[in-house]
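Example 9 (inverse folding). The structure is encoded as follows.
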């Protein structure tokens, strides 16, 4: 992994566009000291509230923290959560030129946590076809040529329609797709697709176990069925598996204390894109992605990898 580490403190001239569903992640941290007299549920005395960029925004933030020049294309609703999310995006140094307001609810996930334990998650979302598909396609037509890699970060909230996905894939220099849902036709012809085991099962309409041989066969099936160049399967405690038409690479996970796996997939996608920009061998990219994922899962809540995290671990 020494080759990729030398790029950590260098400035990459390449540009990446992340297109996908934006999410506001909110965390209420507190203590439980009693049970409610109104119902048999814990009463959480909130001590701290934290808001973070989730979804496609988290993928972009991971890339920015690695030193990549990255832009975001997404949508928010017309509500207070949109204001907060846009402020977070700007605060983290992103332009919001490609972020559109629509008459939807801004996708928001609220988690209540006490003593490092998730007590409940509350979701606000409105999944429906977007009304500005033509506007987004026009913007993509004007700007796609400016990006070396385009990442489609699909959280199945409505932005990534088949038309938008196929336009990106067939018009970009290189595409990485982080998929969701059963309709994988919209991902056909992608360079790399990065499902977890559950997402791969849904995409192929199969029941898959987290086993090498079964996933190798499923990965090759997905490659042939959807004309994808390669597939990177994220396998939780079993690490990562990369499959293309010539080879299969299994990289075991790095042992780590797990506090929260939310957002780890975003980190893997960002690490993969970073490694591709650095023109590093795929096995080293996978080892790097595993390292980054093992770092972020040690934090509670959505956490974007930082250069100092990687350098401290490597030293």
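The amino acid assigned to each position is listed next.
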């Amino acid at each position: 992994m020494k080759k990729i580490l030398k790029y950590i403190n260098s400035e990459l001239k390449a540009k990446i566009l992340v297109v996908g569903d934006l999410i506001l992640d909110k965390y209420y941290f507190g203590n439980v000291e009693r049970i409610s007299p109104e119902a048999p549920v814990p009463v959480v005395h909130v001590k701290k509230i934290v808001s973070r960029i989730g979804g496609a925004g988290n993928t972009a933030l991971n890339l920015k923290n690695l030193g990549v020049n990255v832009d975001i294309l997404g949508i928010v609703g017309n509500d207070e959560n949109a204001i907060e999310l846009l402020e977070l995006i700007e605060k983290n140094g992103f332009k919001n030129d490609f972020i559109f307001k629509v008459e939807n609810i801004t996708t928001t996930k609220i988690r209540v946590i006490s003593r490092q334990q998730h007590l409940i998650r509350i979701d606000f979302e409105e999944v429906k076809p977007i009304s500005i598909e033509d506007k987004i396609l026009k913007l993509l037509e004007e700007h796609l040529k400016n990006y070396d890699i385009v990442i489609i970060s699909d959280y199945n909230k409505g932005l990534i329609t088949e038309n938008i996905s196929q336009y990106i894939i067939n018009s970009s220099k290189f595409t990485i797709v982080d998929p969701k849902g059963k309709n994988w036709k919209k991902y056909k012809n992608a360079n790399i697709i990065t499902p977890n085991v559950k997402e791969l099962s849904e995409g192929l309409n199969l029941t898959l176990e987290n086993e090498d041989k079964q996933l190798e066969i499923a990965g090759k099936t997905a490659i042939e069925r959807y004309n994808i160049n390669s597939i990177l399967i994220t396998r939780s405690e079993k690490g990562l598996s990369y499959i293309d038409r010539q080879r299969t690479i299994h990289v075991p996970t790095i042992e780590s204390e797990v506090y929260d796996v939310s957002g780890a997939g975003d980190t893997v996608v960002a690490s993969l894109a970073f490694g591709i920009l650095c023109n590093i061998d795929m096995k080293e990219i996978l080892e790097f992605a595993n390292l980054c994922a093992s770092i972020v899962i040690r934090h509670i809540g959505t956490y974007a990898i930082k250069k100092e995290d990687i350098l401290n671990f490597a030293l």
